[in-house]
Amino acid sequence: MRKIVQFIKESYAELRKVIWPGRDDVISSVKVVIISTAIIAAVLGLIDVLLLLGVQAIF
C-alpha cells in the first residue's frame, strides 16, 4: 500500500511540472489535424475512384 501512495504522490508531482498547451495552441493543432485529415481523405478517395475506373476498364 505504501508503494501505491508513493507512486500517486510522485505522479502528481510530475504532472505539476508539465507545461500544458494554451487554448490557442490546442485550437491551431486541431485545425491542422482536421485539414490534413480532409486532404488525405480526398487523396485516398481520388485514388479509389481511379483504381475502380481502371478495374472496370479492364473487366
Note the overall shape.
elongated
How far apart the termini lie comes to 69 Å
Radius of gyration: 24 Å
Spell the H/E element sequence: HH
How many DSSP E strands? 0
Strand content: under 5%
Q: Whole-number average pLDDT?
A: 96
The chain-level structural class is mainly alpha
The percentage helix is: over 70%
Uncertain runs = none
- Sheet with most strands: none
- Helix tally? 2
Which characteristics define this entry?
about 60 residues, mainly alpha, about 90% helix, about 0% strand
Secondary structure elements and their pairing?
Layout: H1 2-17, H2 23-58
Describe the overall structure.
This protein has 59 residues and is mostly helical. It is 88% helix and 0% strand. It has helices at residues 2-17, 23-58. It is elongated and about 70 Å long.
Short description:
This protein has 59 residues and is an all-alpha fold. It has two helices and no strands.
